C-alpha cells in the first residue's frame, strides 16, 4: 500500500511503520530491516541548555554525546543490578522483534545498534525497553519519578562501512569516556559478550555468563 504523508511529514491514517516522523522535538525514521543506531539516556543526564532545538540534529548530537561522556547526573546505570536489568531487556527479544548488532550501557545512557523485524515499530521497541526497565529500576532504587528522558536519538545506517564504524564507536565509548583501557574490559557491552572471531554477525556471538 502506498504511504501517504501530511504536510508536517507525519503518516496519514493507517498503521504499520511510520517512515520519517517527528512526534516531539527530534525526528525519527521508522522502517523494518534498516539498521538503526539508537541512544537513550537518564532523565537527569544533561542540563537543559545542551538540547537547544534551534541547532541541527548533527550539531546537537555531537554536543549531547560529549556531555553524556562526562558522566553527569545520578548515573544510576553504574549500579550493576540496574545495568544487568537494562542489558536483559535489550537481549530479551533479539531475533524476535529486532536483530541486535551491538550495544553499550554507560553510566547515564545506552547505545544500541539493531534492525527491526517486520511488524515492530521503532518507537514501540524503545518504549518497551524504557517502560519495563524504569519501573523495575525505581523499585531497586527505592524511588519514584521519571527515570529515562522522554525522547531518544536514532540514526539509520547507509552502508556497511558506516555500520562497522558505528559498532566500533559504540563498543569503544567506555574507553573514550576514560572508564577503561580496552573495550572488552567494560562489563556492560557487546564487546565483552562476544566470543572470539569467526562470525560475520556480532549478535550471533553473544554469551550469557
TrEMBL record:
Residues 31-173 form the Transposase IS200-like domain. InterPro entries: RAYT_transposase, Transposase_17, Transposase_17_sf. It holds the Pfam family Y1_Tnp. Gene3D superfamilies: Transposase IS200-like. This is Transposase. It comes from Labrys neptuniae. The lineage of its organism: Bacteria, Pseudomonadati, Pseudomonadota, Alphaproteobacteria, Hyphomicrobiales.
Amino acid at each position: 500500500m502506498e504511504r501517504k504523508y501530511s504536510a508536517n511529514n507525519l503518516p496519514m491514517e493507517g498503521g504499520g511503520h511510520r517512515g520519517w516522523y517527528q512526534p516531539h522535538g527530534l525526528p525519527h525514521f521508522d522502517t523494518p530491516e534498516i539498521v538503526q543506531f539508537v541512544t537513550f539516556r537518564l532523565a537527569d543526564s544533561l542540563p537543559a541548555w545542551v538540547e537547544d532545538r534551534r541547532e541541527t540534529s548533527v550539531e546537537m548530537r555531537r554536543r549531547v554525546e560529549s556531555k553524556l561522556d562526562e558522566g553527569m547526573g545520578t548515573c544510576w546505570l553504574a549500579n550493576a543490578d540496574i545495568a544487568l536489568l537494562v542489558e536483559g531487556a535489550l537481549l530479551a527479544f533479539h531475533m524476535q522483534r529486532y536483530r541486535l548488532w551491538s550495544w553499550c550501557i554507560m553510566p547515564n545512557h545506552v547505545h544500541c545498534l539493531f534492525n527491526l523485524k517486520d511488524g515492530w515499530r521503532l518507537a514501540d521497541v524503545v518504549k518497551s525497553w524504557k517502560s519495563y526497565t524504569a519501573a523495575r529500576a525505581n523499585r531497586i532504587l527505592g524511588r519514584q519519578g521519571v527515570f529515562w528522558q522522554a525522547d531518544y536519538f536514532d540514526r539509520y545506517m547507509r552502508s556497511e562501512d558506516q555500520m562497522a564504524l558505528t559498532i566500533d564507536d559504540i563498543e569503544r565509548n567506555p574507553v573514550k569516556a576514560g572508564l577503561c583501557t580496552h573495550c572488552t574490559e567494560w562489563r556492560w557491552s557487546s564487546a565483552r559478550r562476544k566470543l572470539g572471531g569467526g562470525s560475520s554477525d556480532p549478535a550471533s556471538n553473544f554469551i550469557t555468563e
